[in-house]
Design a protein that fits this description.
binds D-glutamic acid; six-stranded parallel beta sheet; four-stranded parallel beta sheet; about 45% helix
């Protein structure tokens, strides 16, 4: 048994889409979440920048004494998993891509699979590379949809602008490649899952934000690190707590019970970085 919290991070609010499935499956587990809202989006930045941001956040989570780090961001998982494991060898680090790639390899034998994600995730070919390694027979196609994250972070979801943007990226992609299964290869995209379902009712949609929870459970079980009766409290940090962000959080958790709702604390990034420079 290990009652320390699990550390989650993302460039912003996308990683929160992993939190509700985790709380449902493993209600005893406690969470420290970091959303780097001051520097989001990561998905169109240089890989070297994403690496340095991720190192800072992982370092912060390790200092918070988390028992595991979950990279609740496909962009970071696509580019930084090996680096983070190398820098923090003592702590289990779970990326979001491998469990979903395994699910595709195991269940999509006769499908035409489409991966949608940020520019960096798609350019890395992390999904297609992993799936092909596990099952070379799977037909897999990838497309970057860089406008989705800024619109989602702005809360532009249930309206025509989002629907048109989805069609702009996905209409020809789905038609030309005869896509029947789509992977939401960015943790922000579950927030537009309903739009995608409405526009393409025949598509099967796989959501890595839910799939990862089984991998977390498996690792904690194998290492005998599941929590039981922990008296830690869930803590959610954001590096920029804008009003817009707070509205979005209320929207994400609107269907949840009061005690499952999330309240964020402001994390003063500049102060933390200065502390480091002056050390
Ligand atoms: N939510 C992140 C992902 O899963 C990235 C969004 C972004 O910052 O571009 O890729």
């Amino acid at each position: 048994m290990d009652n320390r919290p699990i550390g989650f991070f993302d460039s912003g609010l996308g990683g929160l889409t992993c939190i509700t499935p985790l709380m449902k499956k493993l209600p005893e587990e406690k969470i420290i979440y970091f959303g780097d809202t001051a520097r989001t989006p990561y998905g169109s930045k240089a890989v070297s920048t994403i690496k340095s941001f991720s190192m800072e956040i992982a370092d912060f989570l390790v200092k918070c004494n988390v028992k595991m780090i979950v990279i609740a961001c496909n962009t970071v998982s696509a580019t930084c998993v090996d680096l983070l494991r190398e820098k923090f060898p003592k702590i289990p680090i779970v990326g979001i891509i491998a469990p979903a790639a395994q699910e595709v390899a195991d269940t999509c034998q006769d499908s035409n699979v489409g991966i949608i994600g940020t520019k960096v995730t798609i350019a890395s070919h992390a999904y297609s590379g992993m799936v092909k390694e596990m099952n070379p027979d799977i037909n897999i196609h990838e497309i970057a949809c860089p406008a989705f994250v800024p619109l989602i972070e702005e809360g532009i979801i249930e309206n025509d602008i989002m629907d048109l943007t989805i069609k702009y990226y996905m209409d020809d992609f789905v038609k030309d490649n005869k896509i029947d299964t789509v992977i939401l290869g960015c943790t922000h995209y579950p927030l537009i899952k309903k739009n995608i379902e409405r526009i393409y009712p025949d598509l099967k949609i796989l959501n890595p934000s839910s799939i990862i929870v089984n991998r977390i459970e498996k690792i904690l079980t194998e290492k005998d690190m599941l929590a039981q009766g922990s008296d830690f409290r869930n803590v959610f940090y954001a590096s920029d707590l804008s009003e817009n962000f707070i509205n979005m959080i209320d929207h994400i958790f609107e269907d949840e019970e009061e005690d499952a709702k999330v309240k964020f604390l402001n994390f003063d990034l500049e102060k933390e970085l200065n502390k480091k420079i002056n050390k």
